[in-house]
Design a protein that fits this description.
single chain, Beta-Lactamase, Heat Shock Protein 90, 3 domains, 6-stranded antiparallel sheet, 5-stranded mixed sheet, 11 strands
Amino acid sequence: MLKNIKSVFRTNRIFVFLVIFRWVSLIPAVLTLNRGNSQNALSPFVVLMIAISANALVSIFNHRLNQLVVDHPYGMSADLLFSAFIFTVSGGSHSPYYLYALSPLLAGAFFFQARGALLASLIFTPLYFLSNFYSSQPPDDIVLIMQLTGIWLFPILFAFPSTLLKDINRAREELSHARDELAERNENLTTAHRQLKVIHDLTVLLQAAPDLISVQQRVLGAVTTGLGFRRAIVGLVDPAREEMGDWLLYPANSSFPAITPLPLKSENGEIFKTLLERKTYKTGIDGEILISHQGLNAWLKTCRWYVYPLSLREHTVGILMVEVNRNEELTRQREEAIMMVSNQAALALGTTILCIDRARRLAVETERNRIARDIHDTVAQSLFGIVYSLDACINMLPIQADTVKSELIELRSLASGAHDEVRRSVFDLWPSALTIELFMADLTNYINSCCRPRSFHIIFNYSGDFNSLSSGLRRAIYRLAQEALANSARHSGINSAQLCLNINENEVYMNISDEGRGFDPTIALSRSVNREHFGLHGIQERTRAMGGDCEIISQPNAGARILIRLPVMGQHHHA
């Protein structure tokens, strides 16, 4: 209802009401047409025709006259003069056109409020007196006073609602402007909320992504489905090889060419230059080469793309490309949205790539350490035994040739065993059925081969179910015992050592001890002092890698003891 009232009282509609008022004000003149005074300058019929003609012109050209009055307020003077003319020739104060004469006064009040009402009344008052002066009938004093009162009262009364209506119109315009601003802000907030939801959903999805391809697919889905782009492409950088490849298009298209990774060099196209310079690029320039691969370059140039580099701190991660229409320019909101998604994508992809690269490096380093420990525990010890026996053979030649021959046969067997140990270390081929019996027998044979020609006795003492342990843990226990007993056989100066093995549900305890000459653990564990005791470090590192503890207790001339604790559910893959 209020909206309809505001619509009715707009300026152009007020002018229509004034036009209607001019027509209605002719009713008294029509009703008194046959009683007109013959003493007037013009006949009543002629005056009526003039008034009707004027009203017709005003009605036909009401829009133009409306704008003319608004733009040129003094143009109303012509209407005032015309009304005074009609009032004069129709009898002055006795004229039936009194209401008609008031129409320009009301127009001034409506269009220009109090100032217009006062000015119009001030101009029309002398015209009113002149009309009565030239009138053929003398004016009645009471009628004169009443009409003068109306000339001033009616415009002033109409000026007040006109002022209110003008204030209402101004308030309506301000409210309309505020509504438009709020609508724009609401649209911006809606867009920002949608963008934040896309970022939130993308973050949640990326946390559950198991591999790089899943991360790429979820980033592309956020760009296309979430932000409304038709197609998007992600290319990834391999930091180890410094190449970019693994191009993925979404939605998938069979015409998209598959290419091999290309080196990260600017001469490989604008896409690589964009990545290296870390700046956004818009395709569509004549003669540009997006990528040095001819097939992919031709495919990309069939569309227009925005290219965004993906980087994580100093690491280059890859490229994100979104397709746009040929003549489309992204709005600031969409630009900010795609930038947020690209930053989140760079974080997720970069973190995943760095984790994969770190895991790969760690696996290589772990495998190197495993091979180094296994070679030290096996091949080095066998070679030590071979060298020791060869020295003994040299000393026996040529007096004890038969003995030397027997020793060489044994050395050949020992060398064959060393060869087998190398194969085991390289390929990590261990039988899963390493029973406690094989464990004790292999240790005995191994230690005796290292100590030839003298024999070394091992006293075994064990409790618990050795066979219930995982093959990896059994292998680790064997390696640790092998190295610890080899150290006793080589350095203790006696011919026996004791190995105690205790196994329960959660942990494995192993105690290797001898009553030999002993040593200072601090000196023995220092590589810079004695490189030959690398095996003790190997025991400690292997134990810690499996989540266990290793304690080495020894003093010069007081024997040595190595205490090892291993968790049953620990890490045994590279022990």
